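Sequence in, structure out. Go.
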Amino acid sequence: MAEGRPGSRTPKQVRVVVDGEARTRSDYLATEEPLEIRLVAGGTRHTVAITMRTPGADFELAVGFLFSEGIISGRDDVRRVTYCIDRDVAPDQRFNIVNVELASGTKPDLRSLERHFFTNSACGVCGKASLDALELRGCRALDDGPEVTAELLYGLPERLRAAQGIFESTGGLHATGLFSPTGDLVALREDVGRHNALDKLVGWAVLQGKVPLHDNLVLVSGRSSYEILQKAITAGVGIVCGISAPSSLAVALAERFGVTLVGFLRDRRFNVYAHAERIKLAQPSALNIT
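Output:
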């Protein structure tokens, strides 16, 4: 780890009380630090977002955020991504600022940069555009996507949990996993904010040239909110699963943009809230959500 660079875990001495008896032991906390995302284009620099995140995959987080917001359309729009080394920035903050420099000739919609996005680990980016705005950005309803069985879905939470390295030591992180149509884990990212975890995953896919993700499934460790669905739709994901419940607006988005939305995926059960046709059962008539 580079000097001054925050880690994903922070050591802490804690007092453990069991049955009225206390003892002191070493523990780890999930690190939470601010990340400022700056966009460098046309000789100017804009602060686009400030988010509380778990350090790690910061470049992917920045790229994923810009992609999800429609500011970039793919990896060809990005010339380079760096941490800030400006002299006026304190050394202990340089790894909390990421500069995304756009490729020559790339002209983002600067009107979208007139506002600043201030986010935290719980609520995601505030002031999101309406459902209509997603269509104006070019998002269209999916007419393809993988077909999967219920048995495959049942196994995803355990595969996600088994791969959560930081959660294993801290117990305090959300995770987003990208799975193949056969249930293989393709990539996983963790963060104190579930929206950040998905942005990191989307950023990885953008930088790898793998978007759109039509042939993949996404599983989030918490609930599926509007922001989760917006980011998934932008990346072209056809099936989104959550361990907890979706929100009403998330369901509305899934219905409108052709996304299969699954909630309460745990203990060999789940609910389907939209576009159940991609989930194959022994008795297909049992699923009739469109």
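Check: Confidence is low (pLDDT under 50) at residues 115-129. Residues 194-207 form the longest helix (14 residues).
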